[in-house]
Amino acid sequence: MALFWLSLALSVFVVIASLVLTTLRGLELFRAFKQMAAAVGEGLDRIGRSSDRIERHLSLAAEGGTRLDVSLARLRSSRARLNVQRAALADVRASLGRITGLAPRK
Q: How do the domains of the chain map onto residue ranges?
């Protein structure tokens, strides 16, 4: 009969010890999950901030591209006027060259 009580006590002890161990491991798992969730949340926040910055940079680049297109159009217009003026100046120089070519040189 003593062996029965001893085995019963040992069984109860093993059950209680396994419950305590399972509870401790469960708490450990829960804490690890909370840490992982916090790390994932921080990572997602960082990604969100980065994507906001990227979006802002892209909008500034698009705005800069629009300004660049306007500036390029003005540059093309100015270059066209410059080419006309250079052609007119070349015509004048050619005409003056013909006139000064008739005058004797020393």
A: 53-98
